[in-house]
Amino acid sequence: MGRMAGGGWSSLSVDLLELISGRAASGADRLHIHQVCTHWRASTPPPRRPPWVVAGRPGSGLYPIRDYSLRLPVGGAPRADVGALPAGLPYCCGTSQGWLALVDHYRYPTRLVLWEHLSNTQIPLPCLGYITLIVLSGDPLASSSEWVAIAGQQWSRSREYSVFYGFNVLPRLCGCDPHHQQRGVHLVTCNGELLVVVLYRGSHPSPAEVYKPVWAPIQRLELHERVMNLGDHSLFVGRGDAFALSAKEFPAIKRNCIYYADKLRHKGYWISVFHLDSDVVEEIPYPEELKEDTTNWMPHAWFCPRTP
């Protein structure tokens, strides 16, 4: 104690500062710790930006990024601002790796651009017709330049084609009698492992299940070990990119959960949170200010801003 008093708070060791920052209850507390002095800023990471919900109009394949589109997944769902969009690109068809994939028309696009809003970096891509989703394999601004963009396209009025189409390669998932309909099937990487998230409709005993998949010799994806504990991680799934976040790095989220942006939602709730350890479904209420909006905003996907 004497040495700390002599050197002042600015002399605390890096290990102790990391411990203090790691136990902070909120992003605001971490920010305050990070801003104390030059030594504390160099010794503690800045708070991570929380994931945002990307909302859009019902019935449209792509969603316009406008005033109400990006919101936080918490009570009241406050709006988040990404700044001015690149001119002439109002529609979003992807939210992968902290980038927004933007096009000029929701049905007949002629321009496709990847946009990172923090640095205002734009990467033009060849534009395909009837784009429904763009997913990136990596961050184009990361130290490694090896990344690809994968496009999903609509090839009929009712179906989409993409690299992974869950119901074509997965066996029948529900073992109940009668069988329960799937609400969604999603691939997501968590802590270096590929996982399959299965969401059910109706009164299934487990509204959400997570499995480790294995490719069978007959080119069929078999679900082997069921995962009941994600540790400190939670999974974020929706119509767009799926990803995992650590509750240690993002104190605002709950651990061992699946956050689902449900475009088939009712106005009673906004986001569904499935607790894997208890099979309890928690519903985040639909924002009050949007209930009066005639647009009838629907949650479509998640967007997690990249860390500069």
UniProtKB/TrEMBL annotation:
Residues 88-153, 172-268 form the KIB1-4 beta-propeller domain. It comes from the Eukaryota. This is KIB1-4 beta-propeller domain-containing protein. It comes from Urochloa decumbens. The lineage of its organism: Eukaryota, Viridiplantae, Streptophyta, Embryophyta, Tracheophyta.
